[in-house]
Design a protein that fits this description.
This protein is about 80% helix and about 0% strand. By secondary structure, the protein is mainly alpha-helical.
Length: about 160
Amino acid sequence: MFKSPPIKRSSTAFLQFVIVLVGIGALALMLWEPHLEGRNAHATVFEVYFNDPFLAYAYLASTPFFMALYHAFKVLGYAGRNQVFSPAAVQALRTIKLCALAMIVFVVGAEIFIFSADSDDRAGGVFIGLLIACGAIVMATAAATFERILQNAVDLKSEHELTV
């Protein structure tokens, strides 16, 4: 029986480190950016975080992103232990796909919120929303493709184990 060579542990550890850095960077940006807005320049912490419903929505909407990062970390852990062709890895990819779809739904809600507010400066928010939606579409497509490939491999593996 042909056994695939294990992925180098250092490669998966490096990619897991990159995922942790992305998560820390995103969290730091989410906490730091509201203080830079013109209307929040002289506001107290309470005013910045509790008087802005859109900011609360943005924090809620970031939950699927951080969940997807966590599951990507798990998939890399499975790859490092040479268990990538397992039902757990398929489930983690399915969760990443669903998180990406949830992010798209949240972006659509944010765009509705932006268009319903009286503002003459919507372009920046709309553009950022489109960028996030495009990234989420790519993430959902990649996760769905990898999920299908891994599911086929898991099915073949289980069929092979049944015949042996």
